[in-house]
């Protein structure tokens, strides 16, 4: 199986159930994208 070219990293925020998602390009050593993942809004979590 070939080595993955991207990696997803979740960074916990101070607010519960909120994460900064980073998509890393491992081949070029850079951030390919980012997203603020708010599980409270998606799933109604407190």
Structural key phrases:
1 helix; three-stranded antiparallel beta sheet; 46 residues; mainly beta
Shape: elongated
Main β-sheet, spatial strand arrangement:
1-2-3
Largest pleated sheet: 3 strands, antiparallel
What is the CA–CA distance across the termini?
Answer: 40 Å
Overall pLDDT metric: 94
C-alpha Rg, in Å? 13 Å
**Strand element count:** 3
Number of distinct helices: 1
Question: What structural class is derived from the secondary structure elements?
Answer: mainly beta
Overall structural domain count = 1
Question: Which H/E pattern describes the elements?
Answer: EEEH
Low-confidence stretches: none
Helix content percent band: 10-25%
Brief overview:
With 46 residues, the protein is mainly β.
What features would you describe in this structure?
With 46 residues, the chain is mostly beta strands. The chain has one domain. Helix content is 11%, strand content 52%. It has a three-stranded antiparallel sheet. Strand 2 and strand 3 form a beta hairpin. The longest helix is centred in the C-terminal third of the chain and has 5 residues.
Topology of helices and strands:
Elements: E1 6-12, E2 18-25, E3 30-38, H1 39-43
Antiparallel strand pairs: 1-2, 2-3
């Amino acid at each position: 199986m070939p080595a993955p070219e991207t990696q997803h990293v979740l960074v916990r925020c101070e607010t519960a159930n909120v994460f900064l998602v980073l998509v890393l390009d491992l081949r070029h050593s850079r951030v390919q994208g980012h997203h603020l993942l708010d599980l409270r809004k998606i799933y109604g979590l407190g």
